[in-house]
Amino acid sequence: MTRVSDNGSLASVNFSINKVKERLQNLQLKGASLKNITRPSDNPVNNIEVLTLDAIKTNNAHYLRNAEFAKLQLSTTEYALQDLTDLMVKAKELAVAQASDLYDAQSRKNVSNEMIQLKNQALAISNRQIGHRRIFSGLKTLTPPFDSNQNYQGDTGKINLEISKGFFVPINLNGHEVFVGGNSSQKKNSPSPIEINHPAKKNETSPEITRDPSRDLASIDKAAQFEKRDNMLSQLDSLVAALENNDSSTIQGLLVSVDKTISRLITLRTKVGSIINAVENSTRSLESQDVNNAARKSKLLDADVAELFSDLQKQQLILKTAYQAGKTTLNQSLLDYLR
Hints:
two-stranded antiparallel ribbon, 10 helices, rod-shaped
């Protein structure tokens, strides 16, 4: 038969009371903060998930800031393209009217002044900016896109922003593709057909390629003329010169180039609009993800108030009972049984 000493009983009672006090203290801390997790040791697995959700929220906040700036940049670009389209449509209307024989030299001279104003408006639109950043200068955002001679000073770089994890969108159009047409970077990097050397087959000598200087100059001049025809500002200059010189045939010939410019601007507006839609869809997705993550975090972290206070009352009752049991046990002595 095992003998239980008074010291053993005392230690057992103290251990039970201390355990109840510890549970009661934890419940009181949760009641003060209304959180299930007050320190990582409370629930390591849930604590890791909560930290992961916090990291995702921080990243999403950064992506949302990028998305807001992207929408600002793209909206400004879209409005600029809309103004340029309206401007070129107005220039075309004037050109169509003045290309007919119904108007004399004085009428065309008067219209040329209006055409000059349209060109000045186009230059003003090309210099639009957000803060100190030019929207049509590529990566050279602090440099005006065109100089006084209408030469493009920017580059063809693209500004890409990450608006969601791994999802980058371009937020700018460079002045070359808007006002000149095409992509100058592709023209610079693409080799000339004359300079391509095909590898010779075995036992066969490679034929010598002769270059005709006149052919090279003609090709360069043709390319320059092609780019000049696509240059919006050059088209407006040509219309001004034709109106001042009463040259209806030149005005008629420029209508095709103006139509191409209008089509290019409409295509660019469509491109910008599709990017804006992608940014807005990404923003809605991030906001929805934040709501779902907040609900999940609340489920993991926040305490159930009703359950918490029910457990608190339960532990207080258990502690009171433990005190009563300890009092009864520890106050007994041999004299209590001899009475």
